[in-house]
Queue: 3 jobs
Job 1
Amino acid sequence: MSRLIGYSRPWWPGDDLSIDIDNLAEAGATAILTDSGVGEGPLDDESPLHSLEAGDILLVSSAARLGSSLPRVVQTIAELGRRGIGFRSLIEPALSTDAGPADPAEVFATLEGLRRRLAGLRTRQGMLQAEAAGRRPGRPSVMTPERVAVAEELRRQHRSIAHIARVIGVSPSAVQRALSVPV
């Protein structure tokens, strides 16, 4: 008899898995395995997925929980198949291996959607890491402290935003943002 085993792994440090675990239990998972999210993913030696046996079905809320890149996710699903373990995704049912053949067009569309989702998750993870390290992610402002000081002085002299922008060599919108001037 096959077991339906849920699996969840955080996308970034501090990620709350409780909603994911509830969704897996509601979908019928008889047991739920969780991972720390540290390392390369579910194929690591320390992964709880090594406890799965042939005939089991791995249930995830999203295939994105299996890795941070599309090749890693596909590799994990293929490895599960080689071990005789089925795969089922709640969000991406076209990738499920226990439901029989799927429409190839639907599989490709699902893989593209998953690739985009993983890219967004990696971006968010990078932004969280930058923030934790005290860096502000994104492009640096053109308004250096020196330029802001000059802009404030010119504004006190009742100069227009356009004039200030020309003098310090930036766009009027940069001056407006730096001085918090309403449009």
Job 2
Amino acid sequence: MTPDDDTAPLDAADAMRLIREQQASTVRRLEPDPRLHYWPWGFAWLIGFGVYFLRFSPDDRTLVAMPAWLPLAVLFTLLAAAAVVFGVGSARAYRHVAGESSQRGRWYVTAWGLGFFGLSVVIGRVTDSLPADLAGLLWSALSVGLTGALHMAGGAIWLDRTLFRLGVWLTVVNIVGALAGPGWHALVVAVAGGGGLLVAGAFARRRHG
């Protein structure tokens, strides 16, 4: 056995380790920080639905006095801000990505847009016939339900267990909140839904490296 034979296994191991490190570095550069996907929405839900609960609590109570329009304004503003943060972060990360991954992403984003547009049109046609508290519950429950379904679909498309499990969690949270009734739904979604998004972002970040 020559000296070169003794060092060859070590050289091969070092080469494989270097390849894996470079691959991981490339993935980190191309994929957005997963916290950009989860945390903006998590804070938006936690604060937005939390404010909604404080104004429209169960049994028509008001825990914190504020104008009736303010909770929805806060929620929609936070959701819009979350969409901007996520969109900018994703655009920067995926600007060099092409092919199937890029097409899947575009179709997935289109599904979100058309899904919520269609949902808004349908709910808008029926809420005038409902009491205000049930109309609010219908809007929030169906929106959260669609969000959970789309998260599960995204997890299936990209074989992302964190995304799929989050979709299952949001669906369960939404069902529990809807069964609890108006007012309680906002609290459950704020704490368990928003909190779930924040936890999912932390776990995804740990896996991302």
Job 3
Amino acid sequence: MSQKLIQTSVFAGVQRQPLRNVLMHMPTIIWVEKGQKLLWWHEQQLVFSRRQWLLIPAGQYLTFVNQPTEREFYSRCLGLLAPPPADWLTPSQQSLPPQVAVSDNLAWCFNTLFSMPALCHSAQKHLLFSLYAELRQQGALGLLYPSANETLRDRLSRYLAIEPAREHKLELVCQHFHMSRATMIRKLASEGTGFRELLAEVRMVHALSLLQQFRSQLDVALACGYQSESRFAARFRQTFGLSPREYQQTLA
């Protein structure tokens, strides 16, 4: 079976969800279909609803509130695991608001990818590139990919996010990236992070998704590499500003 070139997730709630420091470990499109997402971006507040997508490049930390209207918040997310052709990309657009109006063509591309079965790699790539072509047509592709050059941090976090619950021994990860342990540690340090720190951040975002499935706190802790439920809860609160139980209370 071919590895999927996208990751899909759903985030819902019936109460206000304030979250901080949510790492986007891959370029991600967020479509709020019920309620609103209030996002703090470069010292301003942006409001996202059904009419516009939120486009976030890899490596960004988001602080936002998911705000239900008529007692419900619902959003779908596409995480993108394969970049567009380098010659499709324009200079950085990071100063622009990270949003694009949802056209019929974009909606079709999103819905097709979100429900895409286990197609071969080539078929997946054609569908994904259809989305990229539509975003390029609207001048918005650079919001997802502000640079053709990826950092090791972004490459590594995307790799870890494919199977965040896996043990991920540093030595085996280094082999995958064809570099020595010392080289990886040095390069990550130059980018302001470390292997264990990055793995923990990826797993915390994974925890949000697992809690959305109404898993128990202990099950989520174990799936994120924590043997202690209390240590997991402390790290979750330190990262997002609320406890796992407080987050679960917003869901139902």
